[in-house]
C-alpha cells in the first residue's frame, strides 16, 4: 500500500481537491472565448461555446452570432452544462463524505458513479461542438480548436480519473480507516544468531 496515497486518512482531501480543479477548468471552458480561434494572423475567427465571432482583416470590431440559434449549439452547451452542474453536486457530496470521521463508503461509490455520468455528458458536448461547428459555420482562414476547448477536455479527463478512484476507494476501507492490525515479523534465535 502506498504510504500516502488515496488509501490514507491524512490524504483524504486529494480527491475533493482534484474535483475542485476540474470545476475550475470547467468554469474556464464555459466562460472562455477560445474554443475555436484563427491559427495565425490575421486573427479573423474566434468562438466560444455560446457564440461564433468573425471580423474582416482590416476591421477591429467583431461580428458575433449566437450558436444557440442552432440545435447542435444548444445540444453541445446543454450537455456540457448539465455535466458541469452534476460535477458541482459531486464536489459537494465528496466534501461532505470526506468530512465525516467514519466515511460513508457507499456514498463515495455513488459519487464515483455520478462522475461517470458527468464524463459522459461532457464528452458528448465536446464531440458535438467541433463536428457540427466545422460542418455548419463558414470558417475563414486556418483555424484551430484552442485553449478553452482544451480546458474542457482537461476537466473531463480529471473527472474520469476521479470517478475510477471514487469507485475503487471503498475496496480500501479498512486501510483508510486504520482498522488493520499491524503485522510483526520476527525470527527465532536459531535463525538469527546475530541478534544475541
TrEMBL record:
Cellular localisation: Cell junction, Desmosome; Cell membrane; Cytoplasm
Key word Transmembrane present: yes
InterPro entries: P53_induced, PMP22/EMP/MP20/Claudin
Topology class, membrane: Multi-pass membrane protein
Entry protein name: p53 apoptosis effector related to PMP-22
GO cellular component terms, semicolon-separated: cytoplasm; desmosome; plasma membrane
Family, per entry: Belongs to the TMEM47 family.
Keywords linked to the UniProt accession: Apoptosis, Cell adhesion, Cell junction, Cell membrane, Cytoplasm, Membrane, Transmembrane, Transmembrane helix
Transmembrane spans: 12-32, 77-100, 112-131, 151-172
Biological processes annotated in GO: apoptotic process; cell-cell adhesion
Entry keyword Iron: no
Pfam families recorded: PMP22_Claudin (PF00822)
Amino acid at each position: 500500500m502506498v504510504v500516502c496515497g488515496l488509501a490514507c486518512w491524512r490524504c483524504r482531501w486529494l480527491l475533493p481537491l482534484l474535483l475542485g480543479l476540474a470545476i475550475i477548468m470547467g468554469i474556464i471552458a464555459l466562460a472562455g472565448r477560445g474554443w475555436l480561434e484563427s491559427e495565425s494572423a490575421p486573427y479573423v475567427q474566434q468562438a466560444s461555446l455560446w457564440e461564433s465571432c468573425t471580423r474582416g482583416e482590416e476591421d477591429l470590431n467583431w461580428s458575433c452570432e449566437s450558436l444557440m440559434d442552432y440545435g447542435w449549439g444548444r445540444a453541445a452547451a446543454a450537455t456540457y452544462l448539465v455535466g458541469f452542474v452534476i460535477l458541482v453536486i459531486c464536489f459537494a457530496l465528496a466534501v461532505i463524505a470526506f468530512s465525516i470521521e467514519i466515511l460513508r463508503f457507499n456514498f463515495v461509490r455513488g459519487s464515483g458513479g455520478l462522475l461517470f455520468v458527468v464524463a459522459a455528458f461532457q464528452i458528448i458536448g465536446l464531440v458535438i461542438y467541433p463536428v457540427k461547428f466545422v460542418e455548419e459555420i463558414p470558417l475563414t482562414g486556418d483555424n484551430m480548436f484552442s485553449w478553452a476547448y482544451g480546458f474542457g477536455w482537461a476537466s473531463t479527463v480529471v473527472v474520469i480519473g476521479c470517478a475510477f478512484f471514487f469507485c475503487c476507494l471503498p475496496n480500501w476501507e479498512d486501510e483508510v480507516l486504520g482498522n488493520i492490525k499491524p503485522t510483526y515479523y520476527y525470527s527465532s534465535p536459531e535463525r538469527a544468531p546475530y541478534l544475541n
